Amino acid sequence: MIFNSIDFALFIPIVFVLYWFVFNKNLKIQNLLIVIASYIFYGWWDWKFLSLIFFSSLVDYSVGLGLKKYQEVSKRKLLLWTSIFVNLGFLGFFKYYNFFLDNFIDAFMFFGIEIKANSLNIILPVGISFYTFQTLSYTIDVYRNKLEPTKSFVAFSAFVAFFPQLVAGPIERATNLLPQFYKKRVFSYQKATDGLRQILWGLFKKVVIADTCAEYTNTIFNSSDMFSGNTLILGALFFTFQIYGDFSGYSDIAIGTSRLFGFNLNRNFAYPYFSRDIAEFWRRWHISLSTWFRDYLYIPLGGSRGGSWMKIRNTFIIFLVSGFWHGANWTFIIWGALNALYFLPLLLLNKNRSNLDVVASNSIFPSFRELISILITFGLTVFAWIFFRADNVTHAFNYIQEVFSSSLFRYPEIFPKKVLLLIALFIIVEWLGRKSEFAIESINTKFSFPVRWLSYIMLIGIIFYYSGKAQQFIYFQF
Amino acid sequence: MKKFIIKSYLFLSLLILLACILFAFEENHKNTTEYLASMADKHQRIRDIDGQKIILAGGSNLVFGIDSQQIEKELNIHVVNLGLHAKLGLAFILSELRDVASSKDIIVLSIEHLMTSQGDRELQRMTAYYNSFAFKYYHEKNDNWSSLLKFKLDNHHILFKKTISNIIKKAKNDPIYTRNGINKYGDAISHLELVKKDKLGSKSIIKDNSDDKIKLLNEFYLFAKRKGIKVVFSYGAYERSEYENNIIALKKTHKRMEENLNIEMIMDIDDFVYPTSYFYDSVYHLNQKGRLIHTRNMIQKLKSSSTLKEILQ
Predict the structure, then answer these.
(1) Closest partner residue to A465 among B146, B164, B207, by Cβ?
(2) Which of B83-112 are b and which e, b meaning 16 or more Cβ less than 10 Å from the residue's Cβ?
């Protein structure tokens, strides 16, 4: 089930009514309702893969109980590795099997040895990378004694499969989300209306910005050899806004929906395109994944402690793994490596934490220096997205080669003024709302009741106007 | 909770009220002379003809480039020009044909090079907005509640878009692309006396997408064979410089078609390629002169078709 569908529009009020009006007296039944609703939500796409989620939940729940029971290091390590092996085993098989097989064959071919092996026709279960990481955070935190293992299988299953964020995050930590299933949820008017506002803004980002940009992105990237450098730059720009609108829109809808049910999820995006350097960008883009890698990979590897060589190695590892997490394609690995290269100078010069506050926090406009920093960071990001979007590495290099050819100075073949104007307006709204969690959050305090309602009606109208060409969320494929 | 429910209820009521006002406004101003609405007239003509008929099916190259009356006169069989818009896609057009064609009919497919197999969903929805029966040509075959609900919402969505467009800028009445500009056979005639436009539209980069098309066409061929319908295939009329710009992809497509298509191709790749002066406003839309020549060529090709030999002799 996708958020921008009629199915979801009917599903959510039904679950809401059952949750708050029918089962509100009993926490266990309320949690069970979340599990059932989540399984229906996921099963709407393909019920066969529900067994994977169930099995993952069962293994990690048992591992959690085992970790509580046994204090011997060897047994605890065995349990932890069982959890890692099962979860990453599923992920590896469904997501990376064909990639490794193909590269293995290619490597042998390079040395003149021909190996005959057939790729498998594997369907990638939606959201497998997200819930695998979420459930892994539980066993690792229990192993590290940061979290008390849960005794309730229902609460744990609800944590793993929580439908608002099941298929595309934010990747929640067990330390944040799981305890919320133990406590009785109290309806908060403020929280619910904030949630609805965030859902509305998320839908706008997805339906209006991302899906509109997607049309042009697809046209340009799918026939990139036919277009001039100028058009290709526009294509990369459209993808830049498509992926932001798509993914941050999904996160907004997920967080907003959770609020309707009395839950607090972690923020996943914080206006990343207004970042003044790449380090800041990575503190603002897909925050739940970046912090996951920081806590469960980067820090255990030694983090930024030790000498320069250690820093360089760890930085590359985390960015390469992050790229590989996105998909079994060399394009994602290059995208990761490129970001590591952007990031390293800041780390080595100890400037990776220079921009921690909100840009232009005391003024409407950024200073000239800030503006230049934002534009440079944005330019570097756009460039890296070319690899992310390209079909393969050759496609990406050909694309870049054409951008820097003489055709760069031709008038673009595709120049949709209305869409560019729409993006410009979107940037303005995001800029004005950059101090809030989401751009239209402060509508509630800044405007009177009629203006507020008029704004909501206008936003709904615009979303409905643009809603004809629904596209799948990009991050579902990861 | 009470406050939340009351406010949500009020907000939803206001939203529904506003939507009703907008939809009522559009329903009263629904432009039934729209070009796409002519599909209903073409279907009506098919129903009105008792007995064998030639159905010309494809995109707007047929509407603008064929004199159906002339074909009817020459071949002595009733003709219906079902062509409407290439962007409806091949699957849509074949689905429409499955719905309207009867045993012993002759179907002449005249498919533009730019036509994709699945077409443009927005245009399909717009077509169904004017011709509600066309819903089944692009939706899943089993009309469950979900797809019907989606269709209703699609309709409201188009209504909404139309109303907003009408409010923002009054839609111009195009004298050419209108239902009234199409004669009883289904041919556009309102452009015939007009001068060729300086710049021809619909220029595009053609990509080889023959695999999907061949699959759909061969499936249709089996259907037609079962029902006793004769089918022949041709490309639509096409402007020469545009043909030359896309020649590599076109030749690739043509080769695959020749090798894999079960339907007879009544023409060679460049038989319906004409000079710029034969076109009216796009590289697919012929003017009076082009229409005359193309109709003549089409009749010739139909007469020499091996599939139709027995019928047309």
Answers:
(1) B164
(2) bbbbbbbbbbbbbbbbebbeeebbbbbbbb
Which residue is listed with tokens 């944040």? A176
Chain A contact probe: residue of B144, B205, B246, B248 with most A CBs at under 10 A: B205
Q: Which of A461, A464, A468 sits opposite B125 (nearest CB)?
A: A468
| Residue of A231, A111, A126 whose CA lies nearest to A472 | A126
Q: For chain A, give the longest Cα–Cα distance.
A: 74
> Which chain B residues contact residue A187 at CB under 8 A?
1, 4
Whether A111 contacts chain B with CB within 8 A: no
Element (H, E) at A17: helix A6-17
Q: Which residues of B50-64 are buried (b: 16+ CB within 10 A; e: fewer)?
A: eeebbbbbbbbbbbb
R_g of chain A computed on alpha carbons:
23
Closest by alpha carbon to B232, among B139, B287, B303? Answer: B303
What percent of chain A clears pLDDT 70, i.e. is strictly above it?
Answer: 97
Contact indicator for B266, B230 with CB cutoff of 8 Å: no
Q: Are A443 and A197 in contact (CB under 8 A)?
A: yes
Determine contact, residues B56/B81, Cβ cutoff 8 Å: yes
- Looking at the complex, report in whole angstroms how far the Cα of residue A468 sits from the nearest Cα belonging to chain B: 7
Half-sphere exposure of A177 (CA within 13 A, CB side): 32
Structure tokens given for A230: 């100028």
Spell out which residues of chain A touch residue B138, defining contact as CB-CB under 8 Å: none
pTM for this model (two decimals):
0.77
Helix (H, G, I), strand (E, B) or coil at A115: coil
Is the CB of residue B113 less than 8 Å from the CB of residue B236?
Answer: yes
Contact A44, A1 (CB under 8 A): yes
Q: Are B16 and B156 in contact (CB under 8 A)?
A: no
CA triple A137-A339-A332, angle to 5 deg: 70
Tell me how far apart the alpha carbons of residues A238 and B170 are, in angstroms, rounded to a whole number.
Answer: 30
Alpha carbon of residue B75 to chain centroid = 24
pLDDT in tens, B54-70: 999 999 999 999 999 99
Q: What is the tens place of the pLDDT at every residue in B2-49?
A: 899 999 999 999 998 988 887 777 666 666 778 888 999 999 999 999
User: Is the complex ipTM higher than 0.85?
Assistant: no
A226: closest chain B residue by CA: B205
Q: Distance of alpha carbon A410 from its chain centroid, rounded? A: 36
